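Pasting as-is:
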Amino acid sequence: MSSAQLSVMSAQVPAGQEDRATSEDVEHVLVARIAQGDKQAFELLFKHYGERVFRYAFRLISNASKAEEVTNDVMLEVWKNAAKFEGRSKVSTWILGITRHVALNAVRRKEFNTIDVEHAPEIADPNESVAEVDRDRTTLKAALRSALGQLSTEHRDVVELTFFHGCSYQEIAAIVQCPENTVKTRMFHAKKQLQGLLVEAGIDPASVEMAS
């Protein structure tokens, strides 16, 4: 979200809280406005989350065209259910939870002609300029994507949400709907498997930064 958009939306944070307004506050304002049928607020939220939702959906189902459909379905669910959002979690946790639900339901409904994760096209991070993405980082990401493709859905989910989306264990627990201790256990086993897979690929696991 641009600084100009942030300034405009921050102006609608409750009086007395303007100076402390954060991106999260602004997102809550956007959802509240969407609940009232504000199409401009919906467009801003779509612009802010569309790419992120697509990347998560793509890594869940490894099919670009279906991931685009899932992205549209997810944002439609956001539009329809904004009034039900009670603000008890981050907006990102809510939206990624919807994404996981919609993507996995799509997988259950139909067999996809999926592609291997290591052959998947690089999905650009809208928060990074091309100049900031160097060759070493691209290589590491490719190796990590390849290794992730060999994990179970449960283990891949926790790594994906931690490494690529910056979610906390508490947030992941809310997204995948399981106890936080289960998330920690899955992460422990996932990291152990990934270390072996990265070593096999000739990558030093220590060179891949992953939240613990």
